[in-house]
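@channel sequence for tomorrow's demo:
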Amino acid sequence: MPAPKYSIAEQEQLILDAAAQCILESSLIDFKMSAIAKHAGLSMGSVYKHIQSKEDVLVALSVRLEQRAANVIEEVLALPFSLPTKIVAINLVSQEAMYLYPFGYQLMTLLNSKDLLAKASEKWLSKLNGVSNDIHHCFEGALKQAVIDNELLCAADEEEALIREFMLLQWAINVGFPQITNHHHDSYQIEEGTDASPALPLDHPLIKATVRMTNGYPWKAPVSSAELTEIEKILQQRGMR
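structure tokens (generated this afternoon):
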């Protein structure tokens, strides 16, 4: 029997690349499984060995998005700056650098649907939970290390609650703001010409709000404009802005 043309990993790569292209050509709702197979150059049987439904496609692409985001976050947190500055700097990364696809936030919104997740396979749900947990542990580990290093000043009996609170607020800003900018409603007026995709400038309201919120916690050295300017230059050099 001849060896297969593509390995299992290569087939999965082809399928997800094709799925992203099909969504770009149609939408997150209207793409067809048959079109994915055609774009990938694979049979429907081969496609269904990896993804069993359209819901699987969306979750699988979300795994890719989360993996990219995790890599970017780890890279930013490894920079030689204070932790509060690096946390704010994550918001300075352009959406193009942070996420793979222009439909990333719409996809994230869809994944809030319990009905969608209920139809996805355990294989892809497990992978999504795994990478989401990796991001959570990355942030949590950095904050715990900051306590050990006396960079984040708090009593031992306050550490767990303080870290949980800080992570919740950061999550609310990072997830909530893009969804607001993509959903016009009376309580939030988007400035004409505003685009959520480009990297945010240092004087953007979201960056200012994140700095204000971050500096409300007991850091040994709060976020400074000078450090933000320096880390912005490094992000630009690395193609992240």
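heads up for whoever presents: Residues 122-148 form the longest helix (27 residues).
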